[in-house]
Amino acid sequence: MNEQLLTCEQTFSLKPETLEKRIMEYYQETQNSSLTIKYILALRVRFKLGAQEFAHILEDLVRYLFMNTKATRTMKRFFYFFEDYFQASEWKRLTLRVFPIRNFGKKVASVVRSLISAIRPEETTES
């Protein structure tokens, strides 16, 4: 499928059911998670513009893509736009999975700070 799935006009005018069907069929046919996430993000924009029926559109597909497929650059880029699709505990695990290097850096920094605070004397204030 080399042709464009949806035009801008279609993305912002078609009914939610039609869009869900087309995007699901596209993903099943191509397994292209990056473009699928971009289409769903466009629908999130439509929701933010006031179309309440798009609140959690394709929630199952988004959850599947982030939890079960390899994290692509696109998925990392738009990761935080889908936070409300996940519970807090899932979100924490998913953050560790999507950004392992960043989390490793944070962990190392906290360990170094704790080691430094252990050998550095407590500061006292003199009156």
Helix/strand/pairing category: mainly alpha
Unreliable stretches: none
**How much of the residues is beta strand, in percent?**
under 5%
Number of strands: 0
Mean pLDDT: 86
General shape: elongated
Number of helices: 7
In N-to-C order, the SSE pattern is HHHHHHH
What would you report as the Rg, rounded to the nearest angstrom?
21 Å
Largest sheet composition: none
N- to C-terminal distance = 76 Å
The helix content, as a percent range, equals: 55-70%
Written account of the structure:
The protein is mainly alpha-helical and 127 residues long. The protein contains seven helices and no strands. The protein has helices at residues 8-11, 16-30, 33-48, 59-68, 73-77, 88-98, 100-119. α2 packs antiparallel against α3. The mean pLDDT is 86.
What is the element layout, followed by pairings?
Blueprint: H1 8-11, H2 16-30, H3 33-48, H4 59-68, H5 73-77, H6 88-98, H7 100-119
Helix pairs in contact: 2-3
